[in-house]
Write a structure and sequence with these properties.
By secondary structure, the chain is α/β, with parallel strands linked by helices. The protein has 7 helices and 9 strands; from the N terminus they run αββαβββααββααββα. A 4-stranded mixed β-sheet has the order 1-5-3-6. Strand 8 (about 160-165) and strand 9 form a beta hairpin. The longest helix is centred in the first third of the chain and has 11 residues, at about 1-10. The two termini are about 25 Å apart. The relative contact order is 0.19. This is Galactosyltransferase C-terminal domain-containing protein.
């Protein structure tokens, strides 16, 4: 779904940065002053002239910290970086693995990933209903680097059912399996 949102937003606005944000995660202690100092300090992790894919979740409560290969919750990449990693995989159906797959795509494309320090970016995972797990997620994660060049934005297939531009957000309803739905009717 994130790749669909990216593709739709590039059609409608001059998008420069993709910032996927899980609806079930909210920040609990990020300080804008701290974040600004981290972004612009000389030799810092994210100097504006040298933007790198950034995972913004250093700690995810109730967990003690984000694991090393986790790139979910809240993250950001430039438009060029998102295109170079070919967006998110289209093979994850169900919960789990797509954010770790993105970590390996970023590595495979040669980008160093950076993360805020733990005292800057603490997020809270809100209670939410879990969906069924992606049954083959472990195998997909193991093959992420090998697949990223041909699985993602370049193989994205969907049909926009409705597109509504509202005051604070845009509501996009899509059919993610238009080929199967056409043959079954």
């Amino acid at each position: 779904m994130t790749s669909i949102l990216y593709e739709q937003s590039t059609d409608d606005i001059n998008l420069q940065t993709a910032t996927p944000h899980y609806a079930s995660v909210i920040f609990s202690n990020i300080s804008s002053d701290q974040a600004y100092r981290e972004l612009v300090k000389v030799g810092g992790y994210h100097v504006p002239q040298e933007c790198r894919p950034r995972h913004k979740v250093a700690i995810l409560v109730p967990f003690s910290s984000a694991f090393h290969t986790f790139f979910g919750g809240v993250s950001s990449m430039t438009k060029k970086q998102f295109v170079r990693v070919n967006g998110y995989s289209n093979l994850y159906w169900g919960w789990g693995g797509e954010d770790t797959d993105m970590f390996w795509r970023i590595r495979g494309a040669g980008f160093p990933m950076v993360r805020y320090q733990k005292d800057i970016a603490k997020y809270l995972s809100l209670p939410h209903n879990k969906i069924e797990e992606c049954k083959n997620r472990n195998e997909l994660v193991r093959t992420a680097i090998a697949r990223y060049s041909y699985d993602g934005l370049t193989t994205l297939q969907y049909k926009v059912i409705s597109l509504k531009f509202l005051h604070l957000y845009t509501h996009i309803l899509v059919d993610v399996d238009p080929v199967s739905n056409k043959t079954s009717k």
